[in-house]
Design goal:
The chain starts with 17 loop residues before the first helix and ends in a 22-residue tail after the last helix. It has 11 helices and 39 strands. The protein is an alpha+beta fold. Strands 1, 3, 4, 8, 13, 14, 15 and 17 form an 8-stranded antiparallel beta sheet that branches. Strands 18, 20, 21, 23, 28, 29, 30 and 32 form an 8-stranded antiparallel beta sheet that branches. Strands 2-5-16-9-10-11-12 form a 7-stranded antiparallel beta sheet, with no helix packed on it.
């Protein structure tokens, strides 16, 4: 909950940050795309409200539809309103003096804002008091939540109200006419605590009255039979008090909606689930502040280092997103509990949602994973003996599984849940973790992935005092290696419907980012499947993939030099070994010269602690770099025990990009077989990008829509199987570019009977003249002669029609 441990909750004066404003602005943009504000919140479009109040106007207190109040006095403002669906502000009616907020029941232009004989009223309310049955003192008097007219002892005027008793232990709906009759339609017990938001929905008609609390039916009552007369209604209705500013509810109001019809239970449940996240939000991070990395509620991090920024973020907020992906230690650390007592994260129960895009691909998609355990969010530090305290959502080194685990400091670790993942490079995923003492649940991209046991152990307070980390462990290691955006923390486990609603709302922002839009098209498109018969009949010659000095340090010309009998007659001479350091820290430096061979011919230098020339992959030599004849080189930090050096010539018999020496000594592949694994892809190309052979030719680790074999065929054109955009100058990936220039994206060529290497305008042939290519109709199972194609819109070639 947004509940400070101390201070005045209802007048806490926090600054609304730019990020909060951006979130709101983004959401308002979404509303323009929807039929109305209610529909955007999960309320069916045919149940439009009469009016709504999200209390964004704290000066004039106009409604969301622009209705001005009749009068108001002694109102307060809270910044703990709904920041996701509303303004982030809330009305406070909690004064020792008379206080009220009064609106017309009937406004100018025959607009009705509240009906009393039939309709529905929904609202979110947070009391500043606790019910007496929870140890509190209640509001101390009858507390009117919404009120028309004025209660009298003899029912001589007219009254209509939803209200609490002085103990705050019951909620009532009653009405009076002006002829001595009062009817109490329903009542329901409540047990509320201060600072806790509750969703209240009242429905009423001549057939029945119903009260719903927090999305669930609390009670039913008899149908409406009396209500105030028109002269009472002409005086309007009040929110949070009676007409005199007394009988105050003493609390906070937000997202109040009125309807002229009875909402059904499904609509009420859907509304509750849609709005709930905004009222249990602890904090959020849309990463709009890429200098100081403040949260959306303005809380600064404890520390950070080696962070980067991406523009692939949510288009509804700031577009910018956090990148934790460094070869050095990198972290972003926040307090678990802020200095003002406000929690930013709870570890015993709550919800975390985030969007994450890895810079790696899972091994089960042909990638290599993050290469180490990758912490998405982390508290404390994992230890082998569980002696400190740890709480984390993380991936395995292969990027093939997602886990949620904790440790205490008494030797216990609990792995609550795990779920397999198959992710590709730079593809956004929505992750939601809910947890409590009774259950844990993990949702991926809006779908429940798995459930686990309840949380039983958590880190101690001393560990929590060190805060939590996004994207790494406390040392800046175990990095997630990817992009983060729109991280939200909540104080309670959200329902599955709420999680699904969040995903549905937030994914629009990522889809509307033009960079992600292109990526989505690629990920949803079909890629042609590799078969060996589709390989080029002539093996493409691959130039040496390992070149340069490597670990060799040039010292200077050799003291003497002689040529070999041919280019491959070469040897090592003038070897000098020098120990550096002592004891367990001692290493060896090795200086040597290359003689023989021919001028300007590079020779590979290999090292090993074993003199082994078998095919055993556990006894590989290490490639140290390339040197030239008549030069002296230095290798440092070698082991002090045994070291063997050998020179390799540039000979590459099979033209696969690896010298024969490299294949025999390092990769243990065949020096006479271009593609040792039989995939048709050159050994050198596979080892250059994947460090091994046996790569799946149909895999797509960079998620650009082109499989590995196609990327191999395009190697000479600079295409990379591990870079989404090999050219680095396009907003779309390799698959969505058009290499052949025939107007068809690379990844779609096979579907239209061509290939990405050949300019094939024939795919545009349209024998029926309806504007849809014959190949397209074949692709979707329609005859090419269909005019126009059944099920497809009529196409006009005239752009002004």
């Amino acid at each position: 909950m947004k509940t400070p441990a101390s201070g005045n909750l209802f007048f806490q004066n926090r600054t609304i940050t730019l990020a909060r404003a951006l979130v709101v602005a983004g959401f308002l943009f979404a509303l323009l795309l929807a039929p109305n504000r209610a529909a955007a919140q999960g309320i069916p479009a045919n149940t439009s409200p009469l009016d709504t109040w999200s209390f964004g106007d704290t000066n004039g207190w106009n409604s969301d539809y622009g209705l001005a109040p009749v009068s108001f006095t002694n109102l307060g403002v809270s910044y703990y309103g709904d920041p996701i669906n509303g303004s982030g502000l809330a009305l406070v009616l909690d004064s020792t003096n008379a206080a009220w907020l009064q609106y017309n029941v009937y406004d100018s232009g025959n607009t009705t804002n509240l009906t009393v004989s039939q309709g529905s009223v929904t609202m979110w309310f947070m009391p500043s008091w606790g019910s007496t049955n929870t140890g509190g003192s209640g509001p101390g008097w009858w507390g009117q939540l919404i009120n028309v007219g004025q209660w009298t002892t003899n029912a001589s005027y007219g009254w209509w109200s939803l209200y609490t008793d002085p103990a705050g232990a019951n909620l009532y709906f009653s009405a009076q006419n002006n002829s001595g009759t009062q009817t109490n339609y329903l009542s329901a017990p409540i047990a509320w605590t201060p600072g806790q938001w509750h969703f209240i929905a009242l429905t009423y008609s001549s057939a029945q009255t119903s009260l719903y609390l927090d999305g669930q039916l609390a009670t039913n009552g008899v149908g409406m039979s009396i209500w105030p007369t028109s002269d009472v209604l002409s005086n309007g209705f009040c929110i949070g008090s009676d007409t005199n500013g007394e009988a105050q509810a003493h609390g906070m109001f937000d997202e109040l909606y009125t309807y002229n019809l009875v909402l059904n239970s499904n609509t009420i449940s859907s509304t509750f689930n849609s709005f709930q996240p905004g009222f249990v939000l602890l904090d959020s991070w849309s990463f709009w502040d890429t200098n100081g990395w403040e949260s959306d509620d303005g809380y600064a991090p404890v520390s950070f280092t080696n962070l980067a920024v991406s523009n692939l973020g949510d288009a509804y907020s700031s577009l910018t997103s956090l990148v934790v992906d460094s070869t050095n230690a990198a972290w972003l650390q926040y307090n678990v509990v802020e200095s003002d007592g406000r929690p930013s994260l709870t570890v015993n129960q709550g919800t975390i949602t985030m969007w994450f895009a890895p810079d790696w691909a899972s091994t089960n998609t042909g990638g290599f994973g993050p290469g180490g355990w990758g912490q998405l969010i982390n508290v404390g530090q994992w230890t082998s003996d569980a002696s400190y305290g740890w709480w984390s959502l993380y991936t395995d080194p292969a990027g093939a599984n997602l886990y949620f685990s904790t440790q205490n400091n008494a030797g216990t670790q609990t792995n609550y849940l795990s779920v397999p993942i198959s992710w590709t490079f730079n593809a956004w995923h929505f992750i939601a973790l809910t947890y409590s003492a009774t259950n844990t649940a993990l949702y991926l991209d809006g779908q429940l992935a798995t459930n686990g046991v309840g949380v039983s152990i958590t880190p101690g307070t001393n560990v929590l005092a060190n805060g939590f980390y996004i994207g790494s462990d406390t040392n800046g290691a175990a990095q997630a290696h990817g992009i983060f955006d729109d991280i939200y923390t909540y104080g309670i486990p959200l329902s599955s419907n709420a999680v699904v609603s969040l995903y549905a709302n937030e994914r629009i922002g990522f889809g509307m980012n033009p960079y992600n839009f292109a990526s989505d098209l690629i990920l949803s498109a079909q890629s042609s499947t590799y078969t060996l018969s589709s390989a080029s009949p002539t093996n493409m010659i691959i130039q040496d993939v390992f070149t340069g000095l490597g670990n060799l340090q040039p010292v200077g010309p050799a003291s003497s030099c002689s040529n070999g009998t041919n280019a491959y007659n070469v040897w090592i001479t003038n070897v000098v070994a020098t120990m550096v350091g002592s004891g367990t820290n001692a290493t060896m430096n090795l200086q040597f010269s290359i003689e023989g061979g021919s001028n300007n011919v590079p020779f590979d230098v290999f090292a090993n602690s074993l003199l082994d020339f078998s095919t055993n992959t556990n006894k590989r030599w290490a490639w140290e770099g390339q040197g030239y004849q008549c030069k002296t080189y230095l290798l440092t930090n070698l082991p002090i025990t045994t070291c063997f050096l050998i020179l390799g010539t540039p000979q590459d018999t099979d033209g696969d990009g690896l010298t024969d020496a490299y294949e025999l000594l390092v990769s243990k592949t065949s020096p006479t077989n271009y593609s040792t694994d039989g995939t048709g892809m050159a050994d050198g190309w596979e080892i250059l990008y994947f460090k091994q052979i046996g790569v799946d030719p149909n895999g797509d680790p960079d998620g650009d829509g082109l499989n590995n074999y196609t990327e191999f065929q395009m190697y000479s054109q600079g295409y990379s199987p591990v870079k989404w955009d090999s050219s680095t100058n396009s907003v779309v990936g390799d698959g969505y570019q058009d290499f052949s220039g025939d107007g068809l994206a690379n990844l779609m060529e096979a579907s239209f009977g061509g290939n990405m290497f050949t300019n094939n305008p024939a795919w545009k042939a349209n024998s029926s003249g309806d504007g849809f290519p014959d190949e397209y109709k074949t692709l979707v199972g329609l005859p090419s002669s269909a005019t126009p194609a059944p099920g497809l819109p009529t196409y006009s070639k005239n752009p002004i029609q």
